[in-house]
């Protein structure tokens, strides 16, 4: 009669079962560590050890962290050389200042957003009006067959020469304006070329020049444009006025507003 150790026969099955269990555990739980002992059966009944996964740190020191560090500092201080009260108060004051500045920045951002929306709401009242913009280019269309503007002069001058150019830079008409009053001189072009024929729709530039102290000088020209709509823009640009045929311009760049 032979003696058979039943434990030694069941050991391979336990080892196979342990291998399958270990494989399932590895595939389903990636955060566990597999510390082996060399014995497959003991490894199969061993509880998995979970690895310590550190929590995400946003690198921001809040008020709770500050007081925790301060409490730790007080508990670890030398009893023969305790922390000076003035030093502790200075640390608390410094943290309060930094925290206050951070909150102030957030409030300013919120205020800028509110101001941008309020500015766009106010600018919506300009839709349908004409505004004076610092540009010598205006648009001719069926709705606006003429271009009006303002010539800025450094001093009074007898005659201001005005020339109208198309998009290619070709002069299509030249006329004179009285500049004896000086300052801002109104200028208007009826949209007709030198032959008296209406020009095509498009963009045209108004150039002005005059004699200042006996020398010819180019003069700054601003033109009126029709506001067709308003865009909100951003906190940096503010409200944007969309001008018919010209494009967008910031509300802060408007020089004047005229009647409809």
TrEMBL record:
Pfam family, one: FlgD
Domain (FlgD Tudor-like): residue spans on this chain: 118-254
Segments for region (Disordered): 1-45
InterPro entries noted in UniProt: FlgD (IPR005648), FlgD/Vpr_Ig-like (IPR025965), FLgD_Tudor (IPR025963)
Domain FlgD/Vpr Ig-like stretches: 148-211
Keyword tRNA-binding on entry: no
UniProt KW keywords: Bacterial flagellum biogenesis
Biased composition annotated in UniProt, kind: Low complexity: 1-37
Coiled coil ranges: none
Family under the similarity heading: Belongs to the FlgD family.
Described purpose of this protein according to its UniProt entry: Required for flagellar hook formation. May act as a scaffolding protein.
The protein's name in its UniProt record: Basal-body rod modification protein FlgD
Species annotation: Shewanella saliphila
Organism classification: Bacteria, Pseudomonadati, Pseudomonadota, Gammaproteobacteria, Alteromonadales
């Amino acid at each position: 009669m032979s003696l058979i150790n039943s434990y030694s026969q069941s050991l391979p099955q336990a080892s196979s079962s342990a291998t399958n269990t270990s494989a399932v555990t590895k595939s389903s739980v990636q955060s566990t560590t597999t510390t082996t002992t060399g014995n497959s059966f003991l490894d199969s009944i061993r509880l998995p050890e979970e690895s310590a996964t550190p929590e995400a740190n946003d690198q921001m020191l809040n008020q709770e962290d500050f007081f925790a560090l301060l409490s730790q500092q007080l508990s670890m201080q030398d009893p023969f050389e305790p922390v000076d009260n003035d030093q502790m108060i200075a640390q608390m004051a410094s943290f309060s200042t930094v925290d206050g500045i951070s909150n102030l920045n957030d409030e300013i951002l919120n205020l800028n957003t509110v101001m941008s929306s309020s500015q766009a709401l106010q600018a919506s009242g300009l839709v349908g009006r004409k505004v004076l913009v610092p540009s010598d280019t205006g648009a001719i269309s069926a709705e606006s067959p003429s271009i009006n503007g303002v010539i800025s002069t450094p001093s009074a001058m007898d005659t201001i020469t005005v020339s109208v150019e198309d998009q290619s830079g070709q002069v299509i008409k030249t006329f004179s304006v009285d500049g004896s009053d000086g300052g801002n001189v109104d200028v208007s072009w009826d949209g007709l070329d030198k032959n008296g024929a209406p020009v095509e729709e498009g963009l045209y530039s108004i150039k002005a020049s005059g004699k200042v102290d006996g020398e010819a000088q180019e003069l700054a020209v601003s033109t009126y444009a029709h506001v067709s709509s308003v865009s909100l823009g951003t906190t940096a640009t503010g409200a944007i006025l969309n001008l018919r045929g010209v494009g967008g311009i910031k509300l802060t760049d408007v020089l004047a507003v005229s009647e409809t």
